[in-house]
């Protein structure tokens, strides 16, 4: 039963506040991701949990047990490092057995557990191999087996996939997720890759400059980004700035880029400034004479550039006042629009999110 | 003060290191240097001695000479040794193992013996000099700055070679490949990627060279003729027969130590801003060379190694020549060895015993210190780093006097046995151990240690079970350096040895000072033999385990 | 990996065992601190041991080092005897010595022993000029100290730094007096320095002349005989304008561990037959005046046949500090 509670944790390096008064509750068995650009403090926070970085203030608990005062080697976490950190002087089996030896597990039991851990990561026959004989992906599996074999309370993963190639990365993240779910272990995962975070996590905490921007499930973070930063960091978006004109039924009418947008109603009075996010893939092209679904907003934009990517066509267009609007179209049975062409676009107002000004 | 993970272990090492070096190094040495801050009656604090020395043209000259020679020798040594390290690490050469084993030898021969041998060859009446003159080739002599620098280059280059070799071997070849992949030529990627990665190792060697040239008085004593040199002047002021002046001597000693501390701090600043760990999983492959370049590289390495061995050949040849009294006669003779073996072999046993204990002691003390000062970069570890490097800059004479003053009476009496010799060697050689461990640690990724701690192994046990095996090449290399240089240590031995604890180096010194150059040569040959054998054994051993020394 | 450690450990262990073997003793002892050369030490200690059964340990280093060590060890002396250092060093370090009236006091002139018997002379060093006759023909020999001022010898004369050698110090100060004293004397010393190479250690001077590094050297008498008798082209010149007989002596260290053996040695080393043995092997001129040098190897001239310069050792010792400053300045000015 290992929920992780982080309460008011801070750490400064000189003048830089690496982690600033962060509180988080990570549930038992949850796959929790710390996401953010480099330097946002996510790795520092992870290293605090592992015990490699001291806290200036705050408390960290595993369940009811306070662990931030424990020495790193007594915390019973399993950590997977960015560069694998496989001991080059030990073979695969000895690497995996390392933590068991430290726990004085009986030799016979060690062999057994090493074997089953290696089986878990599909490296059954690699026990006697040396690290320099393995590929990057295999090393990563050894690192995972080594971290899991000690049956840690929490699995900590520090950008474990960043050194792998794109395809392997996708494969491995699926495996990691599967392993975590089948073992029911609490996992805390650090990455700067938003797609990875979305794909793998139960919940995500987006961090920026040592602070939490938003904590939530992948789709709430993506669709209802709490701040402009999150909206932009979670993938390409159109972050538009405008002014509230007034209400129109259940919707708010906003003027941005010399265009009227309909968005879901929020508590902003007419005449006030507003920033809202409209994802490129939420926009659809209306064919000539085609009617938009009821209640949808309709806008017009002039194509500046179009990129055909197979499954997707990316378009950069201009609103009447030259504000740029990005559009992503799933392969539609229309021709790729040419530059200069004016498109009629429609969108569901529920797809527009209004992040708070931070 | 934040020590990060494993604070307990790091604090223990730091505290123990500072206490040990404080008691057996700083305190004794300060007792000697304190005279420089006292007036002649010893009662009043004063800076008068400093004013006097610093306003003396003679001592300023000696300072300028020392620094100039030090800089020249350091630059030259680095330029000569770094390419050889690269060649040994990365190029296909003929006789690589032999080259590596032979390249440690220059440290075996006490510098005063080497200087004597070189004079015999290259002095004004030297064999080579006379030969060249007979052929009509003008050749001055080995005296003066060029000669001293040459001797330093040829005797001190292992200080740069060994750590640089280890560094080049630990470079992750993918970094180079990345560079070449980005369009850099092989030469350019070597210059812009590989060399900067290895720079900390090269610099830590260069630092040892610079400090050694400042402190060494054996070589300039003979070769400087009448050019004033700081270390020689300090020696005369400390233990000269007529002009002993503890005040001025202390000033020169303090100046030597201050220069060292300054250089260590500069190096620390430089390294502190860089992290070079590359996490190589295997030694980089050899670079294929055309036959011509291969011959060139092989010739370069062998020329350097053989040139550095000239004093050895000279000493060994001399040991088989006949001496009547002090006078050399060109007849082959075994008389020197007969005389040597008629005497007690006790000095040989002493030398082996003392240097073995010293090497073990210096490793036990120095490796953890090297670890802490590299991994935890705090003010207190910076202090430890400097304190642990300073013994190198304190003349053996000063340490010897300080140890006698401190440990000949009072609550801790150590004089009169073997222990104080071992203690002096450990203190004096601990910088080798600290520097070589630190250099190798710069290339071991700290996340390996974190992984071990994370898996439940305490920091102290992680150090013993993981870090030490990973550093083994460096540790053994440091121990060989300590062993060899302790075996040839003279200046502190002369002050601290008591009757039966005479070492081979003392025998050589006494023989050379009097009429026994032949005996000195035979003794030196014996020392060479007994040093070469263990070195060769260790090399074979490490090779069998596919490890490189350092 | 364990195997690797084990083998390394074996090598280490082998070294230690080898070193420890054969370390065992229990005997009457004597520890001699000396600046004498190894040959002389070896000769006397083995002869003394053979005769008395006392085991002799030699601690040998330069005079300055030896004295420094005795001073540093004053609260717990490790040595019994200091031997082979100059009269002025013995004189200035009397506080560290224990009195003993040697059996041979009557054989040795009063000027070569301490009235309170804190030290006693053993041998005399005469200041001489050594010449390598292969490099400089005998016809070019200097005859006197004043001859050395001749510019034809510029750069050819080796000398020991008086700041590191008591005999060189005495030599310089003697010359100042010889050449008129005061500034006039110093002026000529400066000219002499201009002709000299001033080396760090006295052994560099006589070895240099013996091996041919330098044609001329200002050194001590015994070295000339030692090299010449072993076949080196070295000529010993007693300067016609006068020279000094510098005494070397022996003293018992106060509070040393083996006082009884120390007294035996002090008597032994000045015995007539022992002096003869030492002279034969090392050409040390004895302090006692009752040996016929002309009948002994080398055939050294008797002291009475040589011109000795007047010298006030006490006065020069008293103003040593200023004198050395002056010498240092002169060396720097003439480099």
Could you characterize what this model shows?
The complex is a heterotrimer of chains A (358), B (550) and C (335). Chain A has 358 residues and is α+β, with helices and mostly antiparallel strands. Chain A folds into two domains: 4-233, P-loop containing nucleotide triphosphate hydrolases (Rossmann fold, 3-Layer(aba) Sandwich); 238-353, Nucleic acid-binding proteins (OB fold (Dihydrolipoamide Acetyltransferase, E2P)), CATH 2.40.50.140. Chain A is 24% helix and 35% strand. In chain A, the strands form four sheets. Chain A has a six-stranded mixed β-sheet with strand order 6-7-8-3-9-10, sandwiched between helices. Chain A has a five-stranded antiparallel β-sheet with strand order 13-12-11-14-20. Chain A is elongated and about 75 Å long. Chain B has 550 residues and is mostly helical. Chain B has one domain (7-28, 83-544): MetI-like (MetI-like fold). Chain B contains 24 helices and two strands. In chain B, strands 1-2 form a two-stranded antiparallel ribbon. Chain B starts with 6 loop residues before the first helix and ends in a 6-residue tail after the last helix. Helices cover 41% and strands 19% of the residues of chain C. Mean pLDDT of chain C is 89; it is low at 18-26. In chain C, strands 1, 2, 3, 4, 5, 6, 7, 8, 9, 10 and 11 form an eleven-stranded mixed β-sheet that branches. Chains in contact: A-B, B-C. At the B-C interface, helix 3, helix 11, strand 2, helix 16 and helix 18 of B face helix 1, helix 2, strand 2, helix 3 and strand 7 of C.
Task: Please name the CATH topology of the largest domain in chain C.
Answer: D-Maltodextrin-Binding Protein, domain 2
Order of helices and strands of chain C: HEHEHEHEEEHHEHEHEEHHEHH
Portion in helices of chain A:
10-25%
Strand residue percentage of chain A: 35-45%
Instruction: Determine the number of helices of chain C (DSSP H or I, runs of at least 4 residues).
Output: 12
DSSP summary, beta strand count of chain C: 11
How far is the N terminus from the C terminus of chain C?
A: 60 Å
């Amino acid at each position: 039963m290992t929920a992780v509670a982080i309460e008011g944790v801070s750490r400064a390096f000189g003048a830089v506040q690496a982690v600033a008064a962060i509180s988080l509750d990570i549930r038992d068995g949850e796959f929790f991701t710390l996401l953010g650009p480099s330097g946002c403090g996510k790795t520092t926070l992870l290293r605090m949990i592992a015990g490699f970085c001291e806290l200036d203030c705050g408390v960290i608990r595993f369940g009811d047990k306070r662990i931030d005062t424990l020495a790193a080697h007594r915390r019973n976490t399993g950590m997977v490092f960015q560069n694998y950190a496989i001991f080059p002087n030990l073979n695969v089996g000895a690497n995996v057995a390392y933590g068991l030896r430290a726990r004085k597990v009986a030799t016979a039991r060690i062999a057994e557990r090493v074997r089953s851990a290696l089986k878990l990561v599909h490296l059954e026959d690699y026990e006697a191999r040396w690290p320099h004989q393995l590929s990057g992906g295999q090393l990563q599996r050894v690192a995972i087996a080594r971290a899991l074999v000690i049956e840690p309370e929490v699995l900590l993963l520090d950008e474990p996939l960043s050194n792998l190639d794109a395809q392997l990365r996708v494969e491995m993240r699926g495996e990691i997720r599967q392993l975590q779910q089948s073992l029911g272990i609490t996992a805390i995962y650090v990455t700067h890759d938003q797609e990875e975070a979305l794909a793998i996590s139960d919940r995500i905490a987006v961090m920026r400059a040592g602070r939490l921007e938003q904590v939530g499930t992948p789709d709430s973070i993506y669709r209802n980004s709490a701040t402009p930063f999150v909206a932009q960091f979670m993938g390409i978006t159109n972050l538009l700035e405008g002014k509230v004109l007034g209400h129109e039924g259940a919707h708010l009418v906003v003027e941005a880029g010399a265009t009227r947008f309909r968005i879901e109603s929020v508590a902003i009075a007419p005449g006030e400034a507003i920033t809202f996010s409209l994802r490129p893939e939420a926009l659809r092209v209306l064919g000539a004479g085609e009617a938009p679904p009821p209640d949808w907003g309709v806008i017009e934009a002039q194509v500046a550039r179009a990129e055909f990517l197979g499954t997707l066509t990316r378009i950069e267009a201009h609103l009447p006042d030259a504000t740029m609007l990005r559009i992503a179209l799933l392969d539609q049975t229309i021709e790729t629009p040419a530059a200069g062409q004016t498109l009629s676009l429609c969108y569901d107002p529920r797809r527009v999110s209004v992040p708070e000004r931070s | 003060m934040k020590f990060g993970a494993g604070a307990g272990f790091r604090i223990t090492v730091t505290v123990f290191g500072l206490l040990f070096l404080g008691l057996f190094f700083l305190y004794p040495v300060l007792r000697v240097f304190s005279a420089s801050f006292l007036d002649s009656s010893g009662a009043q604090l004063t800076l008068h001695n400093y004013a006097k020395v610093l306003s003396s043209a003679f001592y300023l000259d000696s300072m300028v000479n020392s620094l100039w020679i030090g800089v020249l020798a350091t630059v030259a040594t680095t330029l000569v040794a770094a390419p050889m390290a690269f060649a040994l690490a990365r190029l296909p050469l003929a006789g690589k193992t032999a080259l590596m084993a032979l390249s440690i030898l220059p440290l075996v021969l006490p510098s005063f013996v080497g200087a004597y041998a070189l004079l015999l060859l290259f002095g004004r009446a030297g064999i080579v000099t006379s030969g060249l003159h007979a052929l009509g080739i003008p050749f001055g002599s080995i005296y003066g700055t060029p000669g001293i620098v040459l001797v330093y280059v040829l005797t001190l280059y292992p200080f740069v070679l060994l750590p640089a070799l280890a560094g080049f071997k630990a470079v992750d070849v993918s970094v180079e490949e990345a560079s070449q992949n980005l369009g850099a030529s092989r030469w350019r990627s070597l210059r812009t990627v590989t060399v900067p990665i290895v720079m900390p190792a090269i610099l830590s060697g260069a630092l040892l060279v610079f400090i050694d040239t400042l402190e060494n008085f054996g070589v300039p004593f003979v070769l400087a003729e009448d050019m004033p040199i700081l270390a020689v002047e300090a020696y005369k002021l400390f233990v000269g027969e007529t002009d002993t002046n503890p005040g001025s001597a202390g000033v020169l000693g303090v100046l030597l130590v201050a220069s060292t501390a300054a250089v260590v701090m500069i190096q620390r600043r430089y390294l502190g801003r860089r992290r070079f760990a590359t996490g190589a999983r295997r030694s980089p492959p050899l670079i294929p060379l055309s036959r011509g370049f291969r011959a060139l590289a092989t010739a370069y390495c062998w020329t350097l190694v053989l040139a550095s061995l000239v004093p050895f050949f000279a000493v060994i040849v001399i040991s088989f020549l006949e001496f009547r009294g002090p006078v050399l006669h060109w007849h082959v003779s075994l008389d020197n060895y007969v005389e040597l073996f008629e005497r007690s072999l006790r000095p040989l046993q002493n030398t082996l015993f003392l240097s073995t204990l010293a090497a073990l002691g210096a490793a036990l003390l120095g490796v953890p210190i090297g670890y802490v000062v590299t991994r935890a970069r705090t003010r207190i570890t910076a202090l430890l780093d400097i304190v642990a490097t300073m013994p190198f800059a304190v003349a053996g004479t000063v340490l010897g006097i300080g140890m006698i003053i401190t440990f000949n009476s009072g609550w801790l009496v150590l004089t009169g046995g073997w222990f104080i010799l071992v203690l002096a060697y450990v203190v004096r050689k601990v910088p080798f151990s600290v520097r070589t461990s630190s250099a190798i640690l710069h290339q071991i990724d700290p996340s390996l240690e974190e992984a071990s701690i994370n898996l439940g192994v305490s920091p102290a046990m992680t150090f013993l079970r993981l870090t030490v095996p990973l550093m083994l090449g460096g540790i053994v290399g440091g121990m060989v350096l300590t062993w060899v240089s302790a075996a040839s240590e003279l200046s502190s031995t002369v002050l601290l040895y008591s009757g039966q604890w005479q070492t081979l180096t003392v025998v050589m010194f006494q023989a050379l000072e009097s009429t026994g150059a032949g005996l000195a040569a035979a003794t030196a040959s014996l020392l060479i033999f007994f040093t070469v054998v263990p070195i060769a054994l260790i090399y074979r051993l490490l090779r069998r385990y596919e490890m490189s020394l350092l | 990996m364990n195997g690797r450690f084990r083998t390394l450990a074996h090598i280490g262990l082998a070294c230690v065992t080898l070193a420890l073997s054969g370390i065992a003793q229990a005997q009457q002892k004597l520890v001699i601190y000396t600046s004498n050369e190894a040959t002389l030490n070896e000769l006397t200690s083995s002869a003394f041991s053979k005769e008395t059964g006392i085991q002799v340990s030699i601690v040998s280093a330069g005079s300055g080092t030896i004295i420094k060590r005795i001073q540093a060890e004053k609260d717990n002396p490790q040595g019994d005897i200091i031997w082979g250092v100059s009269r002025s060093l013995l004189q200035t370090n009397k506080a560290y010595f224990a009195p003993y009236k040697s059996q041979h006091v009557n054989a040795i002139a009063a000027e070569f022993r301490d009235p309170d018997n804190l030290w006693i002379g053993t041998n005399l060093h005469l200041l001489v000029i050594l010449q390598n006759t292969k490099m400089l023909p005998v016809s070019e020999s200097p005859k006197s100290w004043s001859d050395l001022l001749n510019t034809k010898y510029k750069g050819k004369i080796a000398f020991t730094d008086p700041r590191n050698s008591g005999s060189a110090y005495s030599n310089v100060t003697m010359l100042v007096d010889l050449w008129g004293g005061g500034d006039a004397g110093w002026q000529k010393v400066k000219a002499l320095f201009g002709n000299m190479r001033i080396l760090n250690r006295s052994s560099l001077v006589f070895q240099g002349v013996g091996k041919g590094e330098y044609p001329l050297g200002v050194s001590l008498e015994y070295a000339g005989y030692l090299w010449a008798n072993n076949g080196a082209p070295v000529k010993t010149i007693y300067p016609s304008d006068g020279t000094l007989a510098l005494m070397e002596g022996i003293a018992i260290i106060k509070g040393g561990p083996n006082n009884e053996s120390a007294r035996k040695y002090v008597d032994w080393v000045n015995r007539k037959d022992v002096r003869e043995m030492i002279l034969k092997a090392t050409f040390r001129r004895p302090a006692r005046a009752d040996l016929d040098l002309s009948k002994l190897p080398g055939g050294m001239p008797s002291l009475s046949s040589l011109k000795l310069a007047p010298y006030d050792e006490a006065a020069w010792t008293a103003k040593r500090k200023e004198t050395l400053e002056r010498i240092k300045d002169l060396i720097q000015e003439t480099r």
